[in-house]
Amino acid sequence: MAKTIMIVDDSASLRQVVAIALRGAGYDVLEACDGADALRKLTGAKIHLIVSDVNMPNLDGIGFVKAVKQLAAYRFTPIVMLTTESAANKKAEGQAAGAKAWVVKPFSPPQLLAVVQKLVLP
Protein backbone atom coordinates (compact mmCIF):
# COMPACT_ATOMS: atom_id res chain seq x y z
CA MET A 1 0.00 0.00 0.00
CA ALA A 2 1.28 3.45 -0.89
CA LYS A 3 2.35 5.85 1.84
CA THR A 4 0.40 9.10 2.13
CA ILE A 5 2.09 12.50 2.15
CA MET A 6 0.29 15.77 2.83
CA ILE A 7 1.43 18.91 0.99
CA VAL A 8 0.52 22.21 2.66
CA ASP A 9 1.20 25.30 0.54
CA ASP A 10 -0.83 28.34 -0.52
CA SER A 11 0.67 28.12 -4.03
CA ALA A 12 -1.40 25.75 -6.19
CA SER A 13 1.40 25.53 -8.77
CA LEU A 14 3.96 24.54 -6.14
CA ARG A 15 1.59 21.93 -4.68
CA GLN A 16 1.22 20.56 -8.21
CA VAL A 17 4.99 20.30 -8.78
CA VAL A 18 5.52 18.57 -5.43
CA ALA A 19 2.52 16.25 -5.98
CA ILE A 20 3.79 15.19 -9.42
CA ALA A 21 7.23 14.37 -7.95
CA LEU A 22 5.75 12.42 -5.03
CA ARG A 23 3.17 10.54 -7.11
CA GLY A 24 5.94 9.70 -9.59
CA ALA A 25 7.84 8.10 -6.69
CA GLY A 26 4.77 6.04 -5.73
CA TYR A 27 3.29 8.09 -2.89
CA ASP A 28 -0.37 9.02 -2.37
CA VAL A 29 -0.80 12.77 -1.97
CA LEU A 30 -3.24 14.85 0.05
CA GLU A 31 -3.21 18.63 -0.56
CA ALA A 32 -4.12 21.59 1.66
CA CYS A 33 -3.97 25.31 0.81
CA ASP A 34 -2.85 26.54 4.27
CA GLY A 35 -2.33 25.35 7.84
CA ALA A 36 -6.00 25.76 8.83
CA ASP A 37 -7.15 23.74 5.78
CA ALA A 38 -4.54 21.06 6.57
CA LEU A 39 -5.69 20.75 10.19
CA ARG A 40 -9.29 20.23 8.98
CA LYS A 41 -8.02 17.38 6.76
CA LEU A 42 -6.11 15.62 9.57
CA THR A 43 -9.03 13.42 10.55
CA GLY A 44 -7.14 10.47 12.02
CA ALA A 45 -6.21 8.74 8.76
CA LYS A 46 -2.54 7.70 8.58
CA ILE A 47 -0.27 10.38 7.12
CA HIS A 48 3.33 9.19 6.72
CA LEU A 49 4.88 12.64 6.20
CA ILE A 50 3.86 16.30 5.86
CA VAL A 51 5.54 18.82 3.55
CA SER A 52 4.61 22.38 4.58
CA ASP A 53 5.36 25.92 3.47
CA VAL A 54 6.17 28.50 6.17
CA ASN A 55 4.53 31.67 4.84
CA MET A 56 0.80 31.03 4.34
CA PRO A 57 -2.44 32.88 5.11
CA ASN A 58 -4.82 31.82 7.95
CA LEU A 59 -2.29 29.61 9.75
CA ASP A 60 1.42 29.77 8.89
CA GLY A 61 3.74 26.77 8.75
CA ILE A 62 5.29 27.21 12.20
CA GLY A 63 1.84 27.55 13.83
CA PHE A 64 0.67 24.53 11.83
CA VAL A 65 3.62 22.39 13.02
CA LYS A 66 2.90 23.35 16.65
CA ALA A 67 -0.79 22.45 16.18
CA VAL A 68 0.01 19.07 14.54
CA LYS A 69 2.34 18.14 17.41
CA GLN A 70 -0.61 18.61 19.81
CA LEU A 71 -2.66 15.96 17.94
CA ALA A 72 -2.12 12.48 19.40
CA ALA A 73 -2.57 10.75 16.01
CA TYR A 74 0.08 12.95 14.37
CA ARG A 75 2.51 13.77 17.18
CA PHE A 76 5.23 11.59 15.59
CA THR A 77 4.46 12.41 11.94
CA PRO A 78 7.63 13.89 10.40
CA ILE A 79 7.21 17.39 8.94
CA VAL A 80 9.45 18.86 6.24
CA MET A 81 9.37 22.63 5.76
CA LEU A 82 9.57 23.63 2.08
CA THR A 83 10.04 27.39 1.99
CA THR A 84 11.80 30.44 0.59
CA GLU A 85 12.88 31.24 4.17
CA SER A 86 16.57 30.54 4.69
CA ALA A 87 17.26 32.63 7.81
CA ALA A 88 18.83 30.68 10.67
CA ASN A 89 16.35 32.08 13.21
CA LYS A 90 13.38 30.85 11.11
CA LYS A 91 14.97 27.39 10.82
CA ALA A 92 15.53 27.34 14.59
CA GLU A 93 11.90 28.36 15.16
CA GLY A 94 10.77 25.54 12.84
CA GLN A 95 12.95 22.95 14.57
CA ALA A 96 11.76 24.12 18.00
CA ALA A 97 8.15 23.68 16.80
CA GLY A 98 8.92 20.12 15.66
CA ALA A 99 9.95 20.29 11.99
CA LYS A 100 12.38 17.50 11.04
CA ALA A 101 13.90 19.04 7.90
CA TRP A 102 14.13 22.36 6.07
CA VAL A 103 14.25 22.52 2.25
CA VAL A 104 14.72 25.95 0.66
CA LYS A 105 12.92 26.89 -2.59
CA PRO A 106 13.77 26.75 -5.39
CA PHE A 107 14.37 23.03 -4.94
CA SER A 108 14.83 20.10 -7.29
CA PRO A 109 12.35 17.19 -7.10
CA PRO A 110 15.21 14.66 -6.55
CA GLN A 111 16.46 16.79 -3.62
CA LEU A 112 12.98 16.79 -2.05
CA LEU A 113 12.47 13.05 -2.68
CA ALA A 114 15.81 12.28 -0.98
CA VAL A 115 14.62 14.09 2.16
CA VAL A 116 11.18 12.44 1.99
CA GLN A 117 12.67 8.95 1.63
CA LYS A 118 14.90 9.51 4.68
CA LEU A 119 12.06 10.71 6.91
CA VAL A 120 8.85 8.99 5.75
CA LEU A 121 7.31 6.78 8.44
CA PRO A 122 7.37 2.99 7.84
Question: What do these coordinates show?
Answer:
This protein has 122 residues and is an alpha/beta fold. It has a single domain, classed as 3-Layer(aba) Sandwich (Rossmann fold), CATH 3.40.50.2300. It is 41% helix and 19% strand. The protein has helices at residues 12-24, 35-41, 61-69, 88-97, 109-119, and strands at 4-8, 28-32, 49-52, 79-83, 101-104. The chain has a 5-stranded parallel β-sheet, sandwiched between helices.
Characteristic terms for this protein:
122 residues, alpha/beta, Rossmann fold, 5 strands, 41% helix, 19% strand, globular, phosphoprotein, Sig_transdc_resp-reg_receiver, Bact_response_regulator
* SSE pattern, N- to C-terminal: EHEHEHEHEH
The H-level CATH homologous superfamily, spelled out, is: Response regulator
Mean pLDDT: 97
Shape assignment: globular
How helix-rich are the residues, as a percent range? 40-55%
Q: What's the CATH class label?
A: Alpha Beta
The share of residues in extended strands comes to 15-25%
Task: Supply the number of structural domains.
Answer: 1
Would you tell me which CATH topology applies? Rossmann fold
InterPro entries: Bact_response_regulator, CheY-like_superfamily, Sig_transdc_resp-reg_receiver
Keywords: Phosphoprotein
Protein name: Two-component system chemotaxis response regulator CheY
Organism: Rubrivivax gelatinosus (Rhodocyclus gelatinosus)
